[in-house]
Amino acid sequence: MAGKTNLPAFQPSHPGEILREDIMPALGMNVTELANHLGVSRQALSGLINERKSVSMEMAQRLGLAFGNKARFWLALQMQHDAWHAENTITVDVERLEWDHEAA
C-alpha cells in the first residue's frame, strides 16, 4: 500500500498514558499537584493524561524540564503515536516519484 513506512506493528503509547500509568504513580502525585508543579492548569494536564490533547511544544518543554529528559523526548513520543495512528487509519494514495537521487 502506498505511503506505508516501517512503523511498529503495535500502537505506540500516547504521552498522556505514560504520565498517567507510569510517572504520576511513581511520583505519588495527582493531576492537580503535577499541574501546579508544571505551571499549567489542571484542565490542560487532564486533557493530556486522558489522551484528549496532544503534547504541545510548550508542554513538552515543561515536561522535559521537570523530568530532565528534554522537550524532544516528549515530542518524539507524540510524533510516534500520531504517525502510527495516521498511517494505520488514514488512506492516502500518492504515486512514488522517480528522480535522480544524486540531484537532491
- For the record, the CATH architecture stands as Orthogonal Bundle
**How many DSSP-defined strands?**
0
Main beta sheet: none
What's the pLDDT, averaged over the residues? 91
CATH C-level name: Mainly Alpha
Distance between the termini: 25 Å
Structural topology:
Elements: H1 15-27, H2 31-38, H3 42-49, H4 57-67, H5 70-89
Helix pairs in contact: 2-3, 4-5
Describe the structure.
It is elongated and about 55 Å long. The protein has 104 residues and is mainly α. It has one domain (15-89): 434 Repressor (Amino-terminal Domain) (Orthogonal Bundle), CATH 1.10.260. The mean pLDDT is 91. It has five helices and no strands. Helix 2 (31-38) packs across helix 3 (42-49) and helix 4 packs across helix 5 (70-89). Helices cover 58% and strands 0% of the residues. The two termini are 25 Å apart.
What attributes characterize this protein structure?
single chain; 104 residues; mainly alpha; 434 Repressor (Amino-terminal Domain); 5 helices; 0% strand; elongated
Nutshell version of this structure?
The protein is an all-alpha fold.
